[in-house]
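Anyone? Bumping this.
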Amino acid sequence: MLFKPSTVAGIILFASCLNLAIAPAVYAAGEGHLSRSAAYALGLLGIVVVGLAIYLGLVIAKPERF
Amino acid sequence: MTSTTRQPGGPRQQRRHTPKANLSNLYQRALKAAFFKLDPRIMIKNPIMFMVWVGTLITALLTVNPHLFGVTETSAGFNGLVTLILLFTVLFANFAEAVAEGRGKAQADALRSTQAETYAQRMLADGSLEQVRSSALHRGDRIKVIAGEMIPADGEVLSGVASVDESAITGESAPVLKEPGSDVASSVTGGTRIISDELIIRVTADPGKGFVDRMIALVEGAERSKTPNEIALTVLLAVLTLVFLIVVATLPPIAAYIDSPVGITLLIALLVALIPTTIGGLLSAIGIAGMDRVAQFNVVATSGRAVEACGDINTLVLDKTGTITLGNRLAEEFIPVDKHGVKAVAAIALAASVFDTTPEGKSIVRLAEKLGASLDFDPQKAEGVEFSARTRMSGTDLPNGGEVRKGAVDAIRGFVRSRGGQVPDQLEAVYERVSRLGGTPLAVCQDNQIYGIIYLKDIIKPGIQERFGQLRRMGVRTIMLTGDNRITASVIAQEAGVDDFIAEATPEDKIQVIQQEQAQGKLVAMTGDGTNDAPALAQANVGLAMNSGTQAAKEAANMVDLDSDPTKLIDLVTIGKQLLITRGALTTFSLANDIAKYFAIIPAMFATAGIDALNIMGLKTPQSAVLSALIYNALIIPALIPLALRGVKFRPLSANQLLQRNILVYGLGGIIAPFVVIKLLDVGLSVF
């Protein structure tokens, strides 16, 4: 298995905690056009995108694992 | 030996053995497997499809709550359609892989059915026999197998001579003679059956590690690891995907700046349209299908890497006898020299061949007896002298102390001179005459007198010139190695159409040729079956051992041909190249598709930014444009499954010609096809 269940839970926890820092910044950048929930959702989406970029970087660096 | 018994490595029909795989319900099973493969732990192994899978999840969330990421113009219905299309894209890719794996598993099951558990008679240290299950046999065990019984495991014949039916493995109905000690007939494969007599066999593979087991593992794909070419392609696709991800992720601020905000759904649609989903979805199916094709040719490869290496081969090193020629050289004529007559030559030839069990030796005995020759000594009191690559002659030490020999002309010359004899003047002329006919001249002598020359006729395999021509067009150079003299080798080489030849070659010459080619940066393939071929097989980039060969040769090689047909190497080069060409063609097509999808989605995304001029297909609405592009993206995967599994049709062209053809057909086709199809889809969607 590529990731153990405890690792997945850890990643989710880390992402959620990170979002607590990112979401307010997204909200502030939205200049009032975004609701709080949308800001949190966008923050999470940003983390997912960064996560995907890291995943692709891992594929490029260690392709034999995939 | 019956008249239908063939010698290993002899002529074979031009058909390959395809085990009767049960392909019923293949597609239903593949469909079910496609859903099971949606598991993220499986999806994460395919970077491209994993991106689409994540996109599907996000659009699914947007279907439930379209304003999840802020107010947007895309409706829940539109988001739902996009989600459905992306889901089908992932499912189609999984389906392609599942079909390829399903075919492999069916083939593996058919092969497994030839490996029925059976009982074996294991010989104990004291010589007694104990009955054990075949799965209890281990490497090193000695077993006795009699007529009618199945050989329970791969092994090497220690004693006995028997006819073996190998049709379960090779499809060839004519039985094969197996005997110990010979380089070409001492190996047996588990699952084959003894027709007559009996054999004492030393087991050479532990349970589950035999050649057919390895073939099953390769065909099933369960433990398949990515080949170097696949890894390189995965890296390329990942780099492209990362670039597109960065481009798409940085579009929103630019879009906001030009007052043309873009919704998340459209961004995901653009990303999925741009990343190479076609080749990403079909890559593993192409690889699995390639391994299946190798197995259908009855070749056991140790890994996909070996098969791919076949496609990159620059030089092919081939033996003459049995590979380029039919191999069963027959004595055609006895040609006397000096004052000797034909009968005298026949008598000496017979005496020198009485201990010779090779087909050539037996044909000399037959011809001599036909001419009325007979032995004037008791063979039981005489001693045979075996052929060796060093002495290049064989013969008999007579009871009265005399020595009769037959062998290469210069070797016999040296033998006679060393015993104080003279070489007849005519010898050279006769030798040249036989050589110019493409035959192999063997001189015969007794003590210090040369009696004459045996003309061994060798026939070039039909169709071999065309195959070498094909290889030449593909850029593969052929080198023929033979122990024959230069004139014979030159005649055969010219007739067969090989690019180069090495005459009077020793086993060391084989390794030297391979090393010389490799030193020039070339990849070399060779075939072999004897123990003396093992070092060269190990040195070559692709070593193909004959199944009828020795265990040492099979262990040294990275591929084993169960049909023991040396010309199979040519087929393997074709399969390897076809595998690489198929990947290249579909990658070109996949990337070329992006152009049309770009022209479909970008104008739709920035409809309010005044870039209508980019809508060159005249797509009706932004929504229909996006849906059309995504539907095309999804449908092209199942449309190309047959091509991925079958492989692009192989054409023996040079690298430049292949590239031109690839760019024309798959590059240009990849640009034009989506324009046409997306427009048709858009028209269809507009109707609804």
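Late reply, but here is one note on the structure posted above: The helical segments of chain A are 5-29, 36-61.
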